[in-house]
Amino acid sequence: MTRTTGTAQGMMAGVAVAALVGTAGAFGAATTMPAPAAAATPGSDYVDLVAELSPAVVTIEVTKTAGGAPDEMTEEQKEFFEEFEKRFGMPFPNQPGQRGGPGGEMRGSGTGFIVSADGQVVTNAHVIDGADEVTVTLSDGRELTAEVVGSDPATDLALLDVEGEDLPFVGFGDSTALQVGQNVIAMGNPFGLGNSVSTGIVSALGRDINAGPFDDFIQTDAAINRGNSGGPLFNEAGEVVGVNTAIISPTGGSVGIGFSVPSELASEVVADLADDGTVERGWLGVRIQPVSEEVAMALGFDEGEGVMIADVTEETPAAEAGFQQGDIVTAVNGEPVETPRDLTRAIAIEKPGAEVEITYLRRGNEESVSVTLGDRADLDA
Description:
Elements: E1 2-3, E2 16-17, H1 25-30, H2 47-53, E3 57-65, H3 75-88, E4 105-114, E5 120-123, H4 125-128, E6 133-137, E7 143-152, E8 157-162, E9 183-188, E10 196-207, E11 217-220, E12 232-234, E13 240-249, E14 258-262, H5 263-276, E15 282-283, E16 286-290, H6 293-299, E17 307-312, H7 317-321, E18 328-332, E19 335-336, H8 340-348, E20 355-362, E21 365-372, E22 374-375, H9 377-380
Antiparallel strand pairs: 1-13, 2-13, 3-4, 3-6, 4-5, 5-8, 6-7, 7-8, 9-10, 9-12, 10-11, 11-14, 12-13, 13-14, 15-22, 16-17, 17-18, 18-19, 18-20, 20-21
């Protein structure tokens, strides 16, 4: 797994996946983008659309104090960087271990996009992780110091704020309307080279790449490389349908397998961060596992239906609701639950204190119970 950020930390890492909700309120209004001057039509090029959107795509530059030895690289990666320097007479941009200033400072770069006229900027959490200073460079060359409003490592999203008025911005679209084969446009700052555009199609939806509990990625073959982290994935209407976050690659460069956080999730997380800098998530208090083939056969339903409760933690919402080991959750608020990820997300998108209706099987009998959720933050306290 490889993060797509261009920072020195985690710059190159073998074959890997690059990794990596709040109320609508005022922020929801801010993210509504006026229709682009010229949305693309099927079969057309994207010249006018890119010209309309690119001013809202920014470069994120971070400075952090080096914490020790440079990141280790494989022999293959070292040879790549040596060959690049031999051919072009200069180090590869943002090569691991490069120092950008006195005192052992490390510099790196990623991508972001402006989502409000007053300067709210979305990027990946791993882009700004551990940063001492964050600078946002606009497409016109202006450099603005950014404040980190908040970050959410669980979804690898972060929200920044810069001082500005009437800044160009883009808005979130509906990622649930995406279809495999649909054209998309990725923008970012690959390898620190500057604003770049690539196009491709949606290769798959709902990908789980084991990056976290909320994996539901859009897979695309649009070229996404290191430094593209945090950049937008647009549909042909000029709406942000994803936040570019990860790649699978044996070399660290694009091989046509990139992943984006869908806007359905990203818009909720960003709105929550804009509210108070944190993301609040509901918590049930159970350990879960898939339903085994044997159990599914015994109960007379297909394998993959429902999620089994393997353990119930004492003094938790689940314990208070009376859940027991071996119960099989089949739905939350009427929505089917088929995998552990489904249950995790169904609970986590709710606020602490919310009541949810959980349907489950116990010894083959269907039951339901209303549960008042706790705070997921208590899990890490």
